[in-house]
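Take a specimen:
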Amino acid sequence: MNMNLGLVILCLQLLVIKIKSTEIENKIPEGYRKYRDLGFYKLHTTYATWNVARQTCENENAYLVIINSEEELKVIGDMMDAEMAAGVHAGFDDLVTEGEYYTIYGEPLSSTYVKWASGEPDNANGDEDCGNIEKNGDDLGLNDMGCESTRFFICELKDS
């Protein structure tokens, strides 16, 4: 009898684990894909301004991608290559003080992985305050651009 009870308890524990695993998988919004051990990302292939992109990501319980390593930058570059995107919005800006870049969470950009694209940031025309990741051939890095410019964008799931 004790052996049968133990077997029933084990089966119930395995069922609970399976249910929890399924719940986690079902919470991943449509279109997000896991890349290595970095997290879940989604490349939106509709053009949007930086603020619309930021809000779209927030609506998906995500945020505009923030680069934290060379490996993550390479994954983003590969995603861009797959859609032939020369640039995508990213989660940083210098909207408060020109030249002082912060992530969308209010952390200094310098607290993350920072690799600017060649010649960037340049605040062209004195009006480039929003974050972008730019790819020009082998040159891949961060860029400042106008917030009203429309680009594809990449969302990264929170707590991924």
Remarks:
- The chain has three helices and eight strands.
